[in-house]
Amino acid sequence: MRMEMDVALDPTLGCGQAHRWRKNGDVWEGVIGNDAADIRQTEDGLEFSGTSESALKHYFRAEDDLKVIYSDISSRDNHVSSLAVMCPGMRILRQPAWECTATYILATNANVKRIGCMIDSVCRELGRDIGKGRASFPSPADILEGIDRIDSCRLGYRKDRLIMLAQIVEDGILDPEALKEMDYPECRRTLLGVTGIGPKVADCVCLFAYGHLEAFPVDARISRSLEKVYGVRGGYDRLAAFGRERFGSYAGYAQELLYHSDIIMRSRSQAHSGGEHPI
Q: Three-state SS for 24?
């Protein structure tokens, strides 16, 4: 099936927002909810199988008008404006709330490759077969029922945090779906009350699960970028506030462009030399 959409799959699925995607030739193979989805870039959008058009529109936030968003953040900053020109079609994803929260708890102090390995092992060991050699992300109940098998996932200290998260969700202490009704400050405060969730994880979940596009997660790469480009240094709260104030209601989109600025520049160089996108 085919669908028209303003989206560039390589930067969107290869930028580390979500960790269930692998590129095989020209096809992105991954998981959306309980769907084993295969997606290929076309000139005007996507060709896909294994999932529905409505699921893809939800996942890729089809309601986001990239022309408006890119114009807004570009008008605020020349550096981001240049990145936006070189990376059209990159979208913020809308990931399932429980899966995204659990994923980013596992993502603490780990690089993208390591995160992907942990997520794959958790899904293989505790998730459910959805076909094509893929598995769903385990529910809180799946995790609690599989505690005796979780050590094989090699999560380190993150294991206890994942189990605690699963327990409070299963007990009704935290309802990931209820957070969808909260504004950004309330959603962030609620997440920060969970063991294992600090400011960066809270902002990542606010952005990638709950669609608070004003969130501006700061990690070591963003911190270096802010110092190099803007001369701004400081702790997490200062840097995140700088990003939100400078880039406004679409700060999350600016953050993704800054996060992948080195890759975007390499992509431009390879395009000039006839190479492929490096992601």
A: strand
Residues 6+ apart with CB under 8 A from 63: none
Pairing of β 45-49 and β 2-4: antiparallel
The two tokens of residue 247 are: 């880039």
Q: What is d(CA 29, CA 39) in angstroms, rounded to the nearest whole number?
A: 7
Which element (helix H / strand E) includes 266?
helix 261-273
What would the two tokens of residue 112 be?
């993208």
Place of tokens 């909260």: 182
Report pTM.
0.93
Please list the alpha-helical segments (H only) found in 35-183.
53-59, 66-76, 78-86, 97-106, 112-126, 140-145, 158-170
The pLDDT tens digits for 252-273 are 999 999 998 887 876 655 544 4
Cα–Cα distance, 190 to 211 (Å, whole number): 15
Q: How far apart are CA 118 and CA 122, in angstroms?
A: 6
